Amino acid sequence: MAFETKNVEKNQLVAEVRALKNEGQRLVTTTCVDLGESFDLLYHFDLDLQMTHLRLNVPKGESVPSISGIYFAALIIENETQDLFGIPFEGLALDFGGHFYLEEEVKKYPFCKVTVGKTETAGEGA
Amino acid sequence: MATIVPFGPQHPVLPEPLHLRLVLEDEIVKEALPTLGYVHRGLETLASIRDMDQMVQIVERVCGICSCIHAHTYCMCIEGLMGIEVPKRADYLRVIWSELHRMHSHLLWLGLLADAFGMESMFMHAWRIRERVMDVLEATAGNRVIISVNKIGGVRRDMSPDQLRWVLQVADELEKELDLIKPVLTNDYSVKKRTVGVGVLTYQQAYELGAAGPQLRGSGVAQDMRMTGYGAYKYIDFAPVVEKDGDSWARTMVRFRELYQSIDIVRQLVSSIPDGELAAKVKGKPTGEIACRSEQPRGELMYYVKATGDKYLDRVRIRTPTFANVPPLLAMLPGCEMADVPIIALSIDPCISCTER
Amino acid sequence: MLDMTATVLRNFLSKTHTRLYPFQVREVFENVRGNLDIRIEECILCGMCQKKCPSQCITVNKEAKTWEVDPYACVYCGICEECCPTSCLFMPKDYRKPARTKELNQQLQLKGPEKKKKAKE
Known about the structure:
The complex is a heterotrimer. Chain A is an alpha/beta fold. Chain A has helices at residues 13-23, 74-85; strands at 5-8, 26-34, 38-47, 50-59, 64-65, 89-90. In chain A, the strands form two sheets. In chain A, strands 1-4-3-2 form a four-stranded mixed β-sheet, covered by helices on one side. Chain C has a domain at 26-96: Alpha-Beta Plaits (2-Layer Sandwich), CATH 3.30.70. The longest helix of chain C has 12 residues, at 2-13. The A-B interface holds A 1, 3, 26-29, 31, 33-34, 42, 44, 49, 51, 53, 71-73, 75-77, 94, 100-103, 110-111, 113 and B 33, 35-37, 40, 42, 44-45, 48, 80, 207-210, 223, 225, 227-228, 288-293, 300, 302, 304, 306, 314-315, 317, 319, 323-324, 326-327, 331, 356.
């Protein structure tokens, strides 16, 4: 089956997602792929058993706007991505501050291929 | 005055290590915060040190109860990337084993739910019936729970005609046993008092929060991944099981009726299975990206695989149904009493080892 | 109340569903992957089983001519049995008995020196 994605920029992301929600699409999940110099964030949506995909390329160190204001279910996935890859999300509805899965002792992000050291953040931003 | 009570990760009724921080006011739950991460094993990173064939065995071990379907979906992804066509007999056998997994998963869940509201005899009977399904799996596939029959291109074992006849016999016996349990679930006063009206999820909430599986179908949304017709599902007729109320009783009835539906599917497949080869030849390495979905006993499972032609795959992403069912759980809990929390937590059928692979 | 009487009588007169374990042992089905064993004389020490094992539990040492498996790491999937070129690995159907210490179940197989080459006589 063909896999078609639509590329979006960071500033268009929220508008695109809101348009998809008004059509009635449901969020399936978000995938993060480590490409070495940047991350590839893929958003997967579903309507009536057909899937649509969005692709957002983000250089390492930059933050991404969160879609948990539009889809409440996204906050679990975004917290997990924050823990495992280290991409900060702005505007998370419920932010665990990087400790959703992992404990405070974990010092580097586990899923990154080129490891980025974890900076000491100022506690949990709830 | 709010009191905070921790529920889990160790709890006599809860089978999975899920921690919920309940904020209570006079025994009514006001809000709940989840904490996960007790069984995080990082299985997705193993894709960078194990090759494509060994990943089948690793992906099977994400969850014990629905392991065959994880392997099936992963093999579907790789076969889609490489353009391999699976022989018809292998498709039929894969689906027969998947439906047997669905039956044993729902029977296990039924026992745990009965234990949650104190009915230990139903727990024992449900697990006794489940042993018949385990016997079939052991005799035909080699192991009881994690059966390792899928490989890229097809299946590794065959079922002889004698075994197929025996599967039909077991299906008949199971139906008789389930008919004995059915009046208890549908008519008993205590069961209904504990489950009707408890943990209501409306149609709108279930649709928007991204619920999956019996959560969704118990609230009236008729969506089931088996309707897309992957594998051998395109050769049989199939309609999803839907209930309208959205409470725990509706979800229980959805799963119970799915047991009957699985027995029916197994009968249709066994009586029309064609002869043929068991696996197609696999040559070369995959390239590209693909996303595949299938229906596990707990809901909809999605796999995303990215490969670049190397010996190791670039990225394997698994989205399991319990991961999608956690936000609806957080929406169902406020407003219920503290004694109802185990029932609601069990009615989503949690599988935390799937959630944090 | 009378429905329950029928159930009670039926349960009272039928035999139990459980069995008395150490005294009555269940018969194991055929084709079950119970244990991993090797016919060491036929092994050519190629190391294929070590490469293909998903849990990396087999160690093949070519200089010392040994083949070793860790039975507690093995997941009994059967891939090594399928890819062995001389078919010397086999999986008998009986499970291992419970043991009190782990060392009782270690499996180390040494290949004897007289079978190094097929000597023509």
